[in-house]
Amino acid sequence: QVQLVESGGGLVQPGGSLRLSCKVSGVMWRQFSTYDMNWYRQAPGKQREFIASISKYGGTDYIDSVKGRFTISRLNTERTMDLQMDSLQLDDTAVYFCNYNDVWGQGTQVTVSS
């Protein structure tokens, strides 16, 4: 059974940085490497939104509001995906979820507050 576990969330001041990680278990790394992976987030009172993806080939895509501030990466042999978040803003506050092959993690809370 494939499971995803996010980590790295927390409380940070505006302008600060956090690095989120998503660990995938229940799949061999060769199979893991054949799927695209995604990060989503859900702010209070809002719908879950896509924020970044990384393809099996390493190509990346971001929504405009995080371009230049967030960097997505993956390490297939470790079956992990990271999201480096810099220059965090108040409206980055949300629960962040990773997504792999239609499976979701439980989310990790990111709170940006002064």
- The number of E-state strands comes to 11
H/E order of the elements?
A: EEEHEEEEEEEE
Helix content: under 10%
Name the overall outline.
globular
Largest sheet: 7 strands, mixed
Distance between the termini: 40 Å
Low-confidence runs:
none
| Radius of gyration (Å) | 13 Å
Strand content: over 45%
Structural class: mainly beta
User: Residue-averaged pLDDT, rounded?
Assistant: 96
Count of alpha/pi helices: 1
Task: Characterize this entry briefly.
The chain has 114 residues and is mainly beta. 4% of the residues lie in helices and 50% in strands. The chain has one helix at 29-32; strands spanning 3-7, 10-12, 18-25, 37-42, 49-54, 60-62, 70-75, 80-85, 94-100, 103-104, 108-112.
Structure description:
The chain is mainly β and 114 residues long. 4% of the residues lie in helices and 50% in strands. It has one helix spanning 29-32; strands at 3-7, 10-12, 18-25, 37-42, 49-54, 60-62, 70-75, 80-85, 94-100, 103-104, 108-112. The strands form 2 sheets. Strands 2, 4, 5, 6, 9, 10 and 11 form a 7-stranded mixed beta sheet that branches. Strands 1-3-8-7 form a 4-stranded antiparallel beta sheet, with no helix packed on it. The model has no long low-confidence stretch (mean pLDDT 96).
